[in-house]
Structure formats: C-alpha cells, structure tokens
Amino acid sequence: MISIITPVYNGEKFIESCIKVVLEQNCTDIEHIIIDGGSKDSTVEIIKQYAAKYSHIRWISEQDQGQSDALNKGIIMAKGEILGLLNVDDFYEPNVLNKVSKMFSTLPQPTLVVANCNIWDNEGNLKQINKPNKLKITDLLLGWTFAPPPVNPSAYFYHKSLHDKIGLYDINEHYAMDIDFLLRAVQAAHVKYIDEIWGNFRYLENTKSYQDFQRNQAIDRYNRMLDTYRKKLSATLQIYLAILVRIKYFWRHPQDLIPSITKRITFNK
Fold first, then answer.
1. Angle at 175 between CA 138 and CA 224, to 5 degrees
2. What is the pLDDT of residue 267?
3. In contact, 119 and 89? CB cutoff 8 Å
4. Percentage of the chain exceeding pLDDT 70
5. Which has the least CB within 10 A, 15, 32, 160, 213?
6. Domain range holding 17?
7. Residue 143 maps to which CATH number?
8. Is 194 helix (H, G, I), strand (E, B) or coil?
9. How far apart are CA 205 and CA 145, in angstroms?
10. Residue 242 domain-assigned?
11. What angle do CA 179, 181, 184 make, to 5 degrees?
C-alpha cells in the first residue's frame, strides 16, 4: 500500500483539487492521510465531504507544532509500506502512483526513489524542471550549483521503514525539513533516480517557501544546514569535500583561478 500524506492549514483554495489529484491516479492500493492543523476556513468541511464518499481518505484536525509535526503524525498513522508526501497545492503527473507501486514491489528496504519535478509560477507558467540526478551525500553537500536537491516531495517516494533508521522529521525545523530529511535519507537508504517527471510544485507568491526566498533567508538556511552536515563527515571526506567546494568556486569564478595560483606560488617562494 502507498500512503500519501498531506499536511494542510487553511487550504480551502487547493484541498479539493489535492484530493482529486490522488483520486484520479486510479491506484487501488492506496490511502490518503490528510493532517489538518485546525483550519479556520472551510478546509475541514471539504475534507469531511470527500471522506464520507471515499474510504481511502483518513484525516484528523487538531493543532500542531508546524508542518514537520503534521508530517510525523501522518507517518505514524500510515498503514502503507510506501510513503509519499503531497503538499495541498502541488500535484502528481498522471499514473505516477501505479508506477510507484509496481516499482517498489522489486526494491529492497529501505529505498528512496527520486524523479523530476516541474516548477510552476503564480500565473501557471513552467519556470523550471528540477532534475536531481546527483543524490550521494557528498554531491548534495556541494550545494545547489553542482547538485540541486529535489525541490518538492511530490517527486519522491520511499519505504516507511526508512524512518526506523533515520527518525522522523525535525519538529524544530519549519522551512527546510525536506532538505534535512533528504540529507539523512541518502545516507541510510538505497537511492534510485528516475529520469521522468512525476511531481509538480506550485511556487506561489503567498506561500511560506516563496516568502522565505524573497527575504533571502532560504539560501542562508540551506547553506547553514549543509555546513552542519559537512562537519559530521569523517576527516577524509571533509578534505575531499573541501577540494570539491574549491573546484566549484573556480568553476563559477574562473577569473579568480590564475590570481589564486599566482598568489600561492609567490607565497611558497
């Protein structure tokens, strides 16, 4: 079984389309777990209407400590051995869940499968296709330029047993919980990349993620998280990573390479 987990708070604009996205996958062995954080709008009423008609929808509505806490509640509730996370305003490509179900039947536990993701703007224009094909921990720790991480969970699925190895989501992390999860996951799971578009991420102006980027806080938070994980590596890997980071810098700033070499030669004399 696949358990799709959707955290939501005041999501009346998208909750119906989110429920329909999962319904229209026509995947029989599935449950859709919706964790509402005590919405003040009509979100709960919409969930109730669909849950009364479709038995695969399970839901709760109560205050939580943020998105990470909501995800953890969904993971604990999940009956499926495969997990997918679908934010209320994102969506899957057609027939993705059937592909996932068939694929995971042959994969060892725990496995993380990552595919590509469309990124859409406020006007519905396709801005970018995220292709996270470098998924080793040393790749991800190089940062966005060399190894962009998966930008949205609509494009990856994994065995629930992965959480037995790495723990749940960090409830103290309210923005980059997915990056924190991925940095832990790739070190513990079998990782498989699929060069197909599975997910769709709406990068909307009124969302937490968009506002975080506009305040230039997202990149700073991302880099601080990478630094934390870099320090956990062995001494050998830290040296290796430092060399790669230096290569990355000169790849982006080739004009600085010759002056740097000249300075080092002069210093050694």
1. 45
2. 46
3. no
4. 80
5. 213
6. 2-207
7. 3.90.550.10
8. strand
9. 24
10. no
11. 110
Give the number of residues written for the chain: 269
- 42 occurs within a structural domain: yes
224 within domain boundaries = no
Say how far residue 269 (Cα) sits from the centre of its chain. 50
How do residues 204-252 score in pLDDT, each as one tens digit?
666 555 554 555 566 777 778 888 888 876 665 666 566 666 666 566 6
Asked if 72 contacts 145 with a C-beta cutoff of 8 angstroms, the reply is: no
Question: Among 98, 52, 103, 55, which residue's Cα sits nearest to residue 79?
Answer: 55
Distances (CA, A) of 191 to 98, 133, 141: 19, 10, 16
Name the average pLDDT for the chain.
Answer: 87
Among 210, 208, 215, 199, which residue's Cα sits nearest to residue 10? 208
- Which tokens sit at 3? 């358990």
Cα dihedral sign, 64-68-69-70: positive
For the chain, the domain total comes to 1
Exposure string for 33-60, b = 16+ CB within 10 A, e = fewer: bbbbbebeeebbebbeebbeeeebbbbe
Residue pair 258/212 in contact (Cβ under 8 Å)? The answer is: no
**Residue 120, strand partner residues:** 126, 202
How does pLDDT run across 124-146, given as a tens digit for each residue?
Answer: 999 999 999 999 988 888 877 67
Both structure tokens of 187: 């070190």
Which two structure tokens, joined as six digits, stand for 36? 């509402």
- For 55, 245, 262, the CA distances from 225, given in Å and listed in that order, are 40, 15, 33
265 domain residue, yes or no: no
